[in-house]
Secreted protein with C-terminal beta-propeller domain
Amino acid sequence: MKRKLWYSLAVLAVFTGMIIMTGLNEPPKQSIAQEPEQAQPEHLSLPVLGSLDNLRSILKDAENSRGLRGQGVLMGAIALDGMTKSAAAPPVDQASPTNSGITSKESKNYSSTNLQVAEVDEADIVKSDGTYLYQVNNQELLVIQADPSDQMHIVKRISFDENEFSPQELYVDNQYLVVLGNAIYPETQPSATEKDQSKAMIYPPVIHKSTTKVIIYNLADKANITKLREVELDGDYVSSRKIGSNLYLIANKYLDLYRIMNSEMEPTLPSYRDTALKNEFINLDYAKIRYFPDCIEPNYLMIASLNLDQAQQEMQVQTFLGSGQNVYASPTNLYIAVTQYERAEQDTPGTTPKKQIIPSPYSMATAVYRFSLDQGGIDLQAKGTVPGNILNQFSLDEYNNCFRIATTTGETWRSDENTSKNNVYILGPDLQLMGKLEDIAPGERIYSVRFMGDRGYMVTFKNVDPFFVLDLKDPSAPQILGALKIPGYSDYLHPYDENHIIGFGKETIELSPTNNNQGILPGSPVGSNAYYQGMKLAVFDVTDVTKPVEMYKTTIGDRGTDSEVLHNHKALLFDQEKKLLSFPVTVMEVKNPVKSPSGVPQYGSFAFQGAYVYNFDLHSGFTLRGKTTHLDKPDLLKAGQHYYGTKEIERVLYIGDTLYTVSKGKIKANDLSSLEEKKSLTLNP
C-alpha cells in the first residue's frame, strides 16, 4: 500500500504544479509533432528489451535525452480524464447498428449498456439479460431476479475479501458472467542487502503486487453459478472490451525505477496468471517484452485476449514498455492512445534567457497504436502520432478503413501563438496522415466529440459553446460545414438520427471581470469569464449542415447540479422507439437567492438525487415524465449540502414494461408508463 500512497502523492504533486503553472486545469501545449507520422509497414516490427542491462540502458538514455515520460504519464492521466473544465466542477469507455453511432432498434425487450460502437461491448457496474440484473456492489457480486418485478429478489450473493479482490465492472452474456477488478497480494519482504539499501531510498520500494484480475462464471444455474476460470495481469486495470466470446483486457504496470536502476537489486518481471494453464504466475522474460524506440515510459503496457468459449485455450499476452490511457475498439481493431509530454524550449540557444511571467509550455502529442483483432488474437499493426491531446474515447473513431482523431493543442488561458486550438486528423490503415483540419476555435478547447459516418460533431468552449458540423466524407480534405454559437456547453453528444444530436452538458452565463480590469495573469488581457449553471439538455438539428440550430433545450437545477452521464456515457438510458430518455442526476437549487456584487452566481443547495425520466421525440422535445429516488425523508434531512450514501441511483434500466433504478443500497421497480412504484428491494443485509 506504500507504493500506492507514493503514487498518489506524485500525482497530487504534478496536478498541483500544473495548476500553479497555468492558473487553470488545462493540458499543456503541443509542439512535438507538427505532422502525424507517415506510413508504417503492414506489420509493425518492434525491438525487444532482451535483458535487464538493456532495459537500464534504454531508461537511462531516455532520461538523459529528454527526461523519462513517466511524469508525462501522470500528467496525461489527469489531462485525459477530460472532465475538469474552467467553468465546471470536476466529476477521466450508445448502442448503434454501425460504427456511425446511430441508435440501434433491436427487437429485445430490455435495455443494454449504452455503447460507443455496435457489437463492441463495454464493461459496466450493472448488466441485464432480460430477466436478471447483475451488479458489482462494493465488495460483492449480486445476481437479482428482476422479472417479474413483483417477485424481485436476490438469487446469489458472492462476497470478496477486500484484501484479495476488489470488483469494478462486469460483462454478461447467455453463458458467462465475467467480473473484472484489481487484486493485491501480500507484501514481499526485501532481502537483507535490500533492507540495508532501503535506508538511503528517496521513496519506498514496491513491496506489494497489484494485478488486474478477471473471474469467469458459468451462468447455467443462476442460484449456483460456478467459477470456470481466473486470469490476471500484472498492474492496474485500464479498460476492456468484449466482442462476441472474445475478451480483451488492458493493464498498466508502473515500474519501480529505483529497483531497476540499482544494480544490486533484481527487479520483478511483469507476469500473468491463467488457471487454464496453471494457478501460479508466469513471469515474462525480457526477450518477450517489446518497446517503441521513440516513446520510452517507465511503465509496462500489458494487453491480453482470451476466448470464453475455449476454456482450455491459454490467454494470449503481449507486453510493451509504455502505457495505455484511452481505448477505442471496432469489431476488427483495438486502438490505444497515449499522451506524450516534454518541456519545450522557450529561448534561442546562446541568448540570455528572458524573464518569463508565463511559464514555458510543454510539448504534447498523442501516440496511437493499432492492434488487429484476428480470431481473438492481438497483433500490433501500426503506430501513428498526432499533435495535441485527446479528451476521451469519443475523440477516437474508425470508419471505412480510416482512423479519425480529434485533439486540442495549447492552453486556453494564453493569448499568444500558444493559445489552444482544436484539430481533426484522418489517418489511413497504417496510421499515416491522409487529411487534417486544424486551428478550430482558437482560445477554446474540446468538450465533446462524436463521429457519425461521414460527419463529425465537435463542441468547444471557453465562454460560449460553438457546435461544429464537420464533413469527413473525403478523408484527404475534411472541412467545417457549419457552426452554431450558444451559451453553455455539451460534455457528451448522443446520436438521435442522422440529422439530430442530443447534447448533455451545463448551461452557462458570461460575466465581465470587475477586478480593476485585471486579467487572469499579471499583464494578460482583460476578458470575460463563463460560469456554469444547471444541467442542460439540448437537441441540435443539422438537417441544414451549414446552419445547425438548437431545436430544443431544457435545464435541471442551478449551479452545482451534476450527473454521471456528463462523465460516463454508460449512465444514459435512451430508447428511441419508446421515446424514453433517463439518467441519474444530483440536483442543487438556490432556495434563497442573494445577489453578489460581482454577479457570480450562487451555488445551489442539495435538493434531489435520483433519476429524471423524460419522454423525448422530435415533435414535442423534452417532456419530463417524472422523477424517482431511493432517498426517503430522513435521508434528505441528513443530506445537508450534499448526499453521500448507498442510496444514490447509479444506473437506470428497463425490462418489458418496468423501469429499474439501481443504487448500492436498493433496486426500485416502477411502471414504465405511470412511474408508479411496483416493488423495491433492499440490497444491503
Q: What stands out?
A: The chain has a mean pLDDT of 82. Residues 28 and 278 are 46 Å apart (CA to CA). The longest helix spans residues 2-22.
